[in-house]
Structures are given as structure tokens and as C-alpha cells.
């Protein structure tokens, strides 16, 4: 049966409670930290050696679609009927938005050390200890708007600049690609200061703290953010039905990205599933 992912602002109190409860149970089982480790492992930048599947690469969108599906399936085994809600950051763009309330994800970190002290994921509650991260701080951190160097969430106009691009991706198939929907949505840019970060990337930087870097799934808002990114891709596919995933064919052996990125039918680890198998989610879920 096809299930529905809802906008977080439309969740009932009971739905919020069930989602939070399932995430906490996944954490207690140790499985949640496995997801964080997976993201760290596959967060490979342009300059690093070896293949790139999760970021700065055409498979950014299908890789995260499968990653999100695996996470959601685990939650649904714990609490049947639970789905990952999405956060439309072009509308719910202030610290007063519903997702940051005490009954859901908790709010901003305190100024002294960025530690989140509200909500079920606050370290002081005893159920959310970070074991994977860039340092040994065990608590969830946030710094909304990056007070030391202010940044805002993406606007509707900025997102529309990405979705108007009718080409999925372009060479050199990495963070320096000047055109293509994928990189415009992922948000790598040659601008200066906060202008370097667009759309998806800007959201990570606006939340700050734990949401920065490869271990960003340590903040549960990661999943709501990526559910919206997935929704944007779904809308883009409907708006550009003739624009398929690129590159569709194997690259020439002399291409600098040959063997480093997933073309349409190349299997993506850790699931060995190709982007081609993830282009249509309509048999599994829909968005409200």
C-alpha cells in the first residue's frame, strides 16, 4: 500500500509523538548510529580519492532517496504507519516554526556551547547521546542562523532558480558543475561568503552544529530536510518529464570522473542499487 509523507506543520500531536518515539527506539537499538556512520563513510568530496556517491555527484538525489527509504522502513517496523515528514524551509523559516517546539524536535542550542536543551533529543533527557561526529561532544548542537556569520534559509525564489533548470546534471559531475538541477539544488556555488551555499547546503548551515559535515544525520531534522529535498526532486521530475538522470551512459575511460560517479545503471553502495531503480517512488509513497 502506498503511504503518505506529510508536511511537518500538518502533523497531529499523536503523529509527532509516534515519530519521535520511533526515532528514540531506533537510537536505543544502536541502528540509528549505523545510519550516521553510513553517511560519514559515503560523504566523499571532490578532492578526496575514490568513488563519490552521496554528495557532490549526480547520485546525490537517488542515493539519499534510498537512504531515507531504509531509515523509514526501520521506523515503520518499530511503529507501523509512521512516515518521515518533510520540512518546507522556504515557508517554515524561523525558529518559531512548529518543528522546533518542545513536543517535536526541540529548539536552538544555547549560545555558550550550542547544546540543545529542549525536546526529546536534548542530551539532558538521557536518550540522545552522539557517538559519531567531528569531535567528542556527546550532545546535539544547533546554532540557528549562524550568529557569528549570519545566514538565512533558502527563499522560494532561490529554490525556483534550481527547479527551472531542465537538465538533471552536467559535466564535470561534481561540486563545480555550473549548470544542472542537481548541483543547483545540492547547493555548491562559487560565490563569496554565505552566497557560496544554496538550497540544501544552506539549510545545513542555517541549522548549524551537528548538521554540519558528514555526521549530520546525528540531528533528527536531517531526515525532514532530506524528505523535502526528495519532494523537490519529485516535483522537478513531473515538471520536466523528458529530462532523465544524467549521465545515462558509462563515461569514457579518459574522463576524470570515470569510475568515481554512478551513471544511470551503476550500482550504488551500500545497497548495490542503481539510480535507474530509484527514479519513480509512486508505488511506495506519495507526498501530501
How do the strands of the widest beta sheet line up side by side? 1-2
- Termini, distance in Å? 15 Å
Low-confidence stretches: none
What kind of sheet is the major sheet?
2 strands, parallel
Order of H and E elements = EHHHHHHHE
Total domain modules: 1
Give the full name of the CATH homologous superfamily.
Answer: Di-copper center containing domain from catechol oxidase
**CATH level-1 class:** Mainly Alpha
Please count the beta strands (DSSP E, at least 2 residues each): 2
What's the rounded overall pLDDT mean? Answer: 96
Shape: globular
Strand portion, in percent?
A: under 5%
Topology at a glance:
Layout: E1 3-5, H1 13-29, H2 31-42, H3 60-78, H4 156-163, H5 181-186, H6 199-207, H7 221-239, E2 285-287
Parallel strand pairs: 1-2
How would you describe this structure to a colleague?
The protein has one domain: Orthogonal Bundle (di-copper center containing domain from catechol oxidase), CATH 1.10.1280.10. It has a two-stranded parallel sheet. It contains 7 helices and 2 strands. Helices cover 31% and strands 2% of the residues. The model has no long low-confidence stretch (mean pLDDT 96). The longest helix has 19 residues. The protein has 288 residues and is an all-alpha fold. α1 packs across α3.
Amino acid at each position: 500500500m502506498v503511504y503518505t509523507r506529510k508536511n511537518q506543520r500538518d502533523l497531529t500531536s499523536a503523529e509527532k509523538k509516534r515519530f519521535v518515539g520511533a526515532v528514540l527506539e531506533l537510537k536505543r537499538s544502536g541502528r540509528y548510529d549505523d545510519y550516521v556512520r553510513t553517511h560519514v563513510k559515503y560523504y566523499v568530496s571532490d578532492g578526496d580519492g575514490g568513488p563519490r556517491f552521496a554528495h557532490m555527484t549526480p547520485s546525490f538525489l537517488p542515493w539519499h532517496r534510498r537512504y531515507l527509504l531504509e531509515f523509514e522502513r526501520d521506523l515503520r517496523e518499530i511503529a507501523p504507519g509512521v512516515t518521515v515528514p518533510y520540512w518546507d524551509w522556504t515557508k517554515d523559516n524561523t525558529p518559531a516554526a512548529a518543528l522546533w517546539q518542545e513536543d517535536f524536535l526541540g529548539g536552538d542550542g544555547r549560545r555558550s556551547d550550542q547544546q540543545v536543551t529542549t525536546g526529546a533529543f536534548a542530551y539532558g533527557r538521557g536518550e540522545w547521546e552522539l557517538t559519531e561526529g567531528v569531535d567528542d561532544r556527546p550532545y546535539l548542537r544547533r546554532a540557528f542562523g549562524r550568529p557569528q556569520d549570519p545566514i538565512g534559509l533558502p527563499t522560494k525564489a532561490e529554490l525556483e532558480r534550481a527547479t527551472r533548470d531542465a537538465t538533471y546534471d552536467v559535466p564535470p559531475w561534481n561540486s563545480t558543475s555550473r549548470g544542472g538541477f542537481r548541483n543547483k539544488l545540492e547547493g555548491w556555488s562559487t560565490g563569496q561568503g554565505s552566497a557560496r551555499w544554496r538550497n540544501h547546503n544552506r539549510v545545513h548551515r542555517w541549522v548549524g552544529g551537528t548538521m554540519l559535515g558528514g555526521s549530520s544525520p546525528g540531528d533528527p531534522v536531517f531526515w525532514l530536510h532530506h524528505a523535502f529535498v526528495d519532494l523537490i526532486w519529485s516535483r522537478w521530475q513531473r515538471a520536466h518529464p523528458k529530462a532523465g538522470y544524467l549521465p545515462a551512459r558509462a563515461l569514457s575511460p579518459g574522463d576524470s570522473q570515470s569510475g568515481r560517479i554512478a551513471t544511470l545503471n551503476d550500482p550504488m553502495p551500500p545497497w548495490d542499487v542503481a539510480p535507474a531503480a530509484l527514479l519513480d517512488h509512486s508505488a511506495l509513497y506519495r507526498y501530501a
